[in-house]
Amino acid sequence: MKYVLISGGVVSGLGKGVTASSIGVVLKACGLRVTSIKIDPYLNIDAGTMSPFEHGEVFVLDDGGEVDLDLGNYERFLDVTLTKDNNITTGKIYQSVLEKERKGDYLGKTVQVVPHITDAIKDWIESVAVIPVDGKEGPADVCVIELGGTVGDIESMPFIEALRQLSFQVGPDNFCLIHVSLVPVLGVVGEQKTKPTQHSVRELRALGLTPHLLTSRSAEPLLESTKEKLSKFCHVPIENILNIHDVPNIWHIPLQATPPDLQQWTEMAETFDSLTESVRIAMVGKYVGLTDSYLSVVKALLHACVARSFKPSIDWIAASDLEDESAKSTPEAHAAAWTTLKVNALALHCVLVPGGFGDRGVRGMMLAAKYARENNVPYLGICLGMQISVIEFARSVLGWEKANSVEFDAQTPNPVVIFMPEGSRTHMGSTMRLGSRRTLLQTSDCITSKLYGSSEYVDERHRHRYEVNPDVIGTLEEAGLQFVGKDESGKRMEILELPSHPFYVGVQFHPEFKSRPARPSALFLGLILAATGKLEAYISRQNGS
């Protein structure tokens, strides 16, 4: 097994995840099989209980793992299916060591960071590295490891020590360290400054690791004189200094190295750059202040738009700004939010309501769903977005004015969304309905079936606690709402459509997690087709009619 370690210096947020993913793409193009590991030094067991505002989206894997969003980058770039063990956290490591200590596995030894924690880290890396993630048998050739955080952080010290030991253990022919650092330009001087990178590399070397390659992040391409300086003071050959400067889109990143055959990536990057027409998408959500909260949704929209030769133009609307209370407290924001929503509607574009938790902004989401339903604007509701459409329909069409989810109103007289017994009411971590689940299609004569090209079932990833109440399904369907996808028990509603509407679809699962650059999600593709008036023609062609 060959190991490629990606570390970061100077500041966080330099794009280590995209760098690690891009290196994987280049290695795959060389004919190697690649797997990935993300190390997160925080104490949480996983990312499941973290606020999207603090850590971005929680990415969900097939096996139900709630992991860092960088694993989403790995899956999209490398087209692999990772496991929850591909995300290592301090919490997981300490938990495993303490469980062994309680069982007496250490035979009375004093349990210490070195060697017990560091050994646990090495064992975890080596055991996960051999798990196939590309659908083939046998282990991968290369394991790309991204070390989260910044060199020098106290919390990452045990991992750096473990990786130092691993590099010595496997030998120099099997271990490569790539250090990602920042080369800033000071506005007054206008000179590319290498000192931050020099200090970062010095810190790394003091901890026993010497980088083989430097990946320098900068706004503009590095000057030769800058590369020479970095080479001289960081002890890295000049030909091993890679420059990742700002590019129009991230599909250019794998092309920054001297690439092997990356024709598909080159075509994708150039195609996206050449697009001129755009689709306006109103994204009505709770966490719009941090776009990384919806990273996979944004990527899925990108994949679908590019597949139809459009650029996505996302109008971010804070759901709470649409609510009546906002008209009094923040009238300008309220007016702007409604103007944005109506502009999209008039331009025959679309509305998307993504997932979320808690009651903040829920009334605004209902107003957006109602507007889309009544004005024939293409609508896609994901997870909470589906539940919102059910609540809104029950209130507006059935006349159940107090219809609600028990998540928002435990005493509602019309509980159209209820807690279903696959999770815990008292614990939050890993207690939801998680991972890939099968949805059985109830009819082939529906938009979803035609978009997926399947009349039987679809497999998608889930992350939720609440479900549409099966007791009200009959009443809702009599009023015109159609539930075209259910789980294998028939009690959990997975997909809804409104047949009288051009495209009004709600799904309990998260189709964005399995979208890929060359294989866009069927439902996101359907939304973009409907937004551009091409859905019927596409379905006719797909079905040979």
TrEMBL record:
Reaction equations catalysed: UTP + L-glutamine + ATP + H2O = CTP + L-glutamate + ADP + phosphate + 2 H(+)
Enzyme Commission number, as recorded: 6.3.4.2
Keyword Repeat assigned: no
Any GO BP annotation: 'de novo' CTP biosynthetic process
One Pfam short name: GATase
Family to which this protein belongs: Belongs to the CTP synthase family.
Known function: Catalyzes the ATP-dependent amination of UTP to CTP with either L-glutamine or ammonia as the source of nitrogen.
Matching PROSITE patterns: GATASE_TYPE_1 (PS51273)
Keywords: ATP-binding, Glutamine amidotransferase, Ligase, Nucleotide-binding, Pyrimidine biosynthesis
Pathway: Pyrimidine metabolism; CTP biosynthesis via de novo pathway; CTP from UDP: step 2/2
SUPFAM superfamilies: Class I glutamine amidotransferase-like, P-loop containing nucleoside triphosphate hydrolases
Residue ranges of domain Glutamine amidotransferase in the record: 290-528
Nucleotide-binding recorded as keyword: yes
Domain CTP synthase N-terminal: 2-261
Main EC class the enzyme belongs to: ligase
Stated name of the protein: CTP synthase
Gene Ontology MF annotations: ATP binding; CTP synthase activity; identical protein binding
